[in-house]
Structure formats: structure tokens, C-alpha cells
UniProtKB/TrEMBL annotation:
<keyword id="KW-0479">Metal-binding</keyword>
<keyword id="KW-0234">DNA repair</keyword>
<dbReference type="InterPro" id="IPR012337">
    <property type="entry name" value="RNaseH-like_sf"/>
</dbReference>
<dbReference type="GO" id="GO:0000287">
    <property type="term" value="F:magnesium ion binding"/>
</dbReference>
<dbReference type="GO" id="GO:0008821">
    <property type="term" value="F:crossover junction DNA endonuclease activity"/>
</dbReference>
<feature type="active site">
    <location>
        <position position="7"/>
    </location>
</feature>
<keyword id="KW-0540">Nuclease</keyword>
<dbReference type="InterPro" id="IPR002176">
    <property type="entry name" value="X-over_junc_endoDNase_RuvC"/>
</dbReference>
<dbReference type="InterPro" id="IPR020563">
    <property type="entry name" value="X-over_junc_endoDNase_Mg_BS"/>
</dbReference>
<protein>
    <recommendedName>
        <fullName>Crossover junction endodeoxyribonuclease RuvC</fullName>
        <ecNumber>3.1.21.10</ecNumber>
    </recommendedName>
</protein>
<dbReference type="GO" id="GO:0048476">
    <property type="term" value="C:Holliday junction resolvase complex"/>
</dbReference>
<feature type="binding site">
    <location>
        <position position="7"/>
    </location>
    <ligand>
        <name>Mg(2+) 1</name>
    </ligand>
</feature>
<keyword id="KW-0378">Hydrolase</keyword>
<keyword id="KW-0460">Magnesium</keyword>
<keyword id="KW-0255">Endonuclease</keyword>
<feature type="binding site">
    <location>
        <position position="68"/>
    </location>
    <ligand>
        <name>Mg(2+) 2</name>
    </ligand>
</feature>
<dbReference type="GO" id="GO:0006310">
    <property type="term" value="P:DNA recombination"/>
</dbReference>
Length: 185
């Protein structure tokens, strides 16, 4: 499975692509950070992010996109910009029929460090070790994008099992309700 991890942001948007095989073995294929100047109009910044992300999707052909979920942030402007960047990325994936999954920062930190409250330095150190990189990815947005992709690779089997279980439960509920309706008639 090939996963594109995205740490969305207007000023810096981390992008990564990793591949996984069996178990927890993952390989980094590419990582970068898209930067847009704060003094550039919002629509131009989003266009830059969109163009770059679309190029990555067309070049790397990921099976799935893992995007950091926006959470409550004390700075509403930062949260809004992050959400807008994430939306542009999700839209680009939808146009290519690529599945998108959102992961919270604490899910990602827990997946790669074992601690949902790990700091950026701990995440970067573990990403470097997990991927056997020669040097730590910088800036932190690059490491975060890699961590998102790793998190998804490791959580994907569980996500698939949960979706299958939910579908079976919904089908069982429909069958049960049909039997009830038939018994009442």
C-alpha cells in the first residue's frame, strides 16, 4: 500500500509518501514541505498547495491520503487555514478517487511514539528510527507528514476490520427489522 501523508497548513504544508508491505515495515519514498508566504492572498496560497499536492498525487499515485484532522486550536486563524488547506487536499484526492482518512494529532503521536502527548522532537526521532533515515527530516512539518503516513499504514488493517464489522452490523440490523416487520404483518 502506498500512503501519502499530509500535515496541512498554509505557511508550511508537509507532504510525504511511504510504502508498506507486510506487518509494520514501512519505506519512505519522498518528503517535502510546501511553503507559501503569509503576505500572499489566501486564494493564491491555496492554489499553490493544490497544484503541488495534485502533482504529488499524479506522480506518486498513492492508494490513500492520510491528513491530520484539525482540532480545537486557541488561534482560530491557524485552525481555519489548516482546515482550508486540508479541504483543498481532500478535494484533489476525491477528484482522483483516492480514499482519504483523517487522523488526530494524538492518534499519530501514539502510533509512532506510544505516547499521544509526545512532543515534536520525540515524533521526529521515532520517525527517523522507524524509517531508518540517515538524518532527521526537517522542518517538523516534514516529520509530521511522515508520521501521518506511518500511522495510517499501521492503523489501516484495523480501520478496514472496523468498517467490515460496521457493515455486517448494519446488514444484521436491516435483516432483523425486516423480520420484525414481517412478523407484525
Amino acid at each position: 500500500m502506498r500512503v501519502m501523508g499530509v500535515d496541512p497548513g498554509l505557511t508550511r504544508c508537509g507532504l510525504s509518501v511511504i510504502e508498506t508491505g507486510r506487518g509494520r515495515h514501512v519505506i519512505a519514498l519522498d518528503v517535502d514541505v510546501v511553503r507559501t508566504p503569509a503576505d500572499t492572498p489566501l486564494h493564491r496560497r491555496l492554489l499553490t498547495i493544490s497544484d503541488t499536492v495534485e502533482h504529488w498525487m499524479d506522480t506518486h499515485l498513492p492508494d490513500v491520503i492520510a491528513i491530520e484532522r484539525v482540532f480545537a486550536n486557541q488561534n482560530a486563524n491557524t485552525a481555519m487555514g489548516t482546515a482550508q488547506a486540508g479541504g483543498v487536499i481532500a478535494l484533489a484526492a476525491a477528484k482522483r478517487d483516492i480514499d482519504v482518512h483523517f487522523h488526530t494529532p494524538s492518534e499519530v503521536k501514539a502510533a509512532v511514539t506510544g505516547n499521544g502527548r509526545a512532543d515534536k522532537a520525540q515524533v521526529t526521532t521515532m520517525v527517523t528510527k522507524i524509517l531508518a533515515l540517515q538524518q532527521k527530516p526537517t522542518p517538523a512539518d516534514a516529520a509530521d507528514a511522515l508520521a501521518l503516513a506511518i500511522c495510517h499504514c499501521w492503523r489501516a488493517p484495523m480501520i478496514a476490520r472496523m468498517a467490515e464489522a460496521e457493515a455486517k452490523a448494519a446488514e444484521a440490523k436491516r435483516a432483523y427489522q425486516a423480520r420484525l416487520k414481517a412478523a407484525r404483518a
